[in-house]
Specification:
Elements: H1 2-16, E1 35-38, E2 43-45, E3 53-57, H2 63-74, E4 83-88, H3 92-101, E5 110-114, H4 117-123, E6 131-135, E7 141-146, H5 151-155
Parallel strand pairs: 3-4, 4-5
Antiparallel strand pairs: 1-2, 1-5, 3-6, 6-7
Length: 158
């Protein structure tokens, strides 16, 4: 239900955007220049993130996202050479609660951040949640994974 609502809102926002505003031109293989706000309040661009990265787009009340987070936490050692950026259109307090609930808070390679739905749609485009983008150290897309996916399938691309 939450995924359907997210998709409907995504479509409505995309359709109601002014005609002169277009999606940022990014090739499919480049990490998108999405402005994110870390829980500390610091703002940064995804395209300037250091090292190998996973961008995990999620919503805090999505049951698929919750199960994915729980599965990732159980296999966190498989992700040790990557930094995982969990990105939601949610207040910092809600993201922190999600991080705490799924035991992802305080892990050195897990970062929680927010981005506005409008920016995600403009820069990345509409997607279901969760969606994971795996990027190499050179900021090249390795794999896009849409929907709840077994962790064993995700780590095949690391």
């Amino acid at each position: 239900m939450v995924r359907i609502l997210f998709l409907v809102v995504s479509i409505l926002v995309a359709c109601s955007s002014p005609k002169h505003e277009t999606r940022t031109e990014v090739t499919v293989n480049d990490m998108p220049p999405l402005m994110i706000t870390l829980l500390s309040g610091e703002k940064t661009m995804t395209s300037s993130l250091p090292g190998k990265s996973l961008l995990v787009f999620y919503t805090v009340d999505c049951d698929h996202c919750q199960r994915e987070a729980e599965a990732i936490q159980k296999k966190i050692d498989s992700f040790r050479s990557y930094t995982l950026y969990f990105i939601a259109d949610a207040p910092a307090a809600e993201s922190q609660k999600f991080a705490d609930t799924y035991k992802l808070s305080g892990l050195s390679n897990v970062v929680f951040a927010s981005a506005t739905l409008e920016d995600v749609l403009r820069v990345v485009g509409p997607m279901e949640t969760p969606t994971i983008f795996i990027y190499s150290e050179e900021k090249r897309l390795v794999k896009k994974i849409s929907g709840e996916t077994p962790v064993e399938e995700i780590v095949k691309f690391l």
